[in-house]
Amino acid sequence: MRIQVTDHGAIADGKTLATTAIQRAIDLCPHGGEVVIPKGRFLSGALFLKSDMTLRFMPGAELYASTDPRDFPLMTYRYEGKEQLCYASLINTDSAPHKNISILGEGVIHGGGMALYEAERGENAGKRGRAVCLRNAEGVVIRGVTIRQSPAWCLHLIYCNDVAIENVQIYTKYDENGNQCHMFNGDGLDLDSCTRVKVQDCLIGSEDDCIAIKCGRDTEGRRGGLPSKDILIENCRFTSGFGVAIGSEMSGGVENVTVRNCVFENTFSVASIKPPRGRGGYIRNIVYEDCTHKNESTEHTDCLWYRGAIYMDGFYAQETFDADQRMPINEGTPSVENIVFKNITAETVAGRGLFLCGLPESPFRNVRFENVRVKGIKEPYIKNIENLDYVNTEFSVTE
């Protein structure tokens, strides 16, 4: 059964708030039914999906977030690794368990851009909302849509299992007219304590991490013990941002992640693995393979949160550090092991091609490079790595 939002009073003029009409269609949708957003521009506040439904965007459909924070109620969601009070996102689930939710079609989901970003920061009643934030859901499919310009991370999945994200376009750095926005921490896709995820044939142009894999922060994340694992990212193209990142909120553990057959164009990095002291947890069994990268932008260079085209950084977010100073091992000591880079070419004009720095009390273990060519403008930095293996690999410096 299909339910048209226009049948419940939604007006496609881009000015009339359609939240109540669209939510009514969602609430009336039967199990296995579809709520349809037809061609036109619809303005809305926070919407809440439910189990066993599809939100379908027809060609030419545009769902725009209101720029009034009052249209986004405050709710507790995980953000930056901890449960915090946040503005609701444009498309949400509540915290109850959900199953079989799909967002499909050829339309655009616009998260409100700089106007909502500035309004939420100005009011400052909670952390910034996202364009789409689904929580505690089994069986999620997101296919075909374009998602852009969230006040914070663009697509955020929390505690979701059995997820397919296919042929989705995500943009956070530039608006629809190609103008650069000046938001910060505008990740494209965040997988937060999620398992059995496939991300395929997607295009992401991000202001920050293109894809970030997370699983909680510090004591709260370790206590929850909900890892992100069994994740496949393949056949994707990244056009700005910082590639595929793991961490820095990784206290619940990350394992069994494969990134393969992806193209990185003017991203600052291919891979960033960020397990700083105090987080605890583990990162293990990670593979990046069959990827190409070239960055010609010098907008960012080596700094406390970016170290190179491929980087693994136990001192992430520290301006200065002593890589020889040991600290006591405790529950906040992270571990990293079994990381493979295979069949990769990477070149950057923004700093080092390679940065590998484990903690002296917890070195990174079993790191392998096979058929890798990496070029940067600084020499590679390698410290506190146990069992580092190279096969047919070359690291060079641009002359």
Question: How would you describe this structure to a colleague?
Answer:
There is one protein chain. The chain is mainly beta. It has one domain (89-397): Single-stranded right-handed beta-helix, Pectin lyase-like (Pectate Lyase C-like, 3 Solenoid), CATH 2.160.20.10. The protein has three helices and 36 strands. The protein has helices at 19-28, 113-123, 218-224; strands spanning 2-4, 13-17, 33-37, 40-44, 47-48, 53-57, 61-65, 74-79, 82-87, 91-92, 98-105, 108-110, 132-135, 137-143, 146-148, 155-158, 161-166, 169-171, 189-192, 195-200, 203-205, 211-214, 228-234, 237-240, 244-247, 254-260, 263-265, 271-274, 282-295, 310-313, 335-348, 354-357, 364-376, 381-383, 385-391, 394-397. It has a 23-stranded parallel β-sheet that branches. An eleven-stranded parallel β-sheet has the order 5-10-13-16-19-22-25-28-30-32-34. It starts with a strand and ends with a strand. 49% of the residues are buried.
In summary, what is this structure?
This protein is mainly beta and 399 residues long.
Characteristic key phrases:
399 residues; mainly beta; Pectate Lyase C-like; eleven-stranded parallel sheet
Q: Look at the helices and sheets and give the structural class.
A: mainly beta
* Main β sheet profile: 23 strands, parallel
- How would you describe the oligomerization state of the chains in this entry? single chain
CATH class: Mainly Beta
CATH topology: Pectate Lyase C-like
Dominant shape: globular
Q: Radius of gyration, rounded?
A: 21 Å
For this structure, what is the CATH homologous superfamily?
Single-stranded right-handed beta-helix, Pectin lyase-like
In angstroms, what separates the terminal alpha carbons? 63 Å
Task: Please report which band the strand proportion falls in: under 5%, 5-15%, 15-25%, 25-35%, 35-45% or over 45%.
Answer: over 45%
Task: Round the mean pLDDT to the nearest integer and report it.
Answer: 95
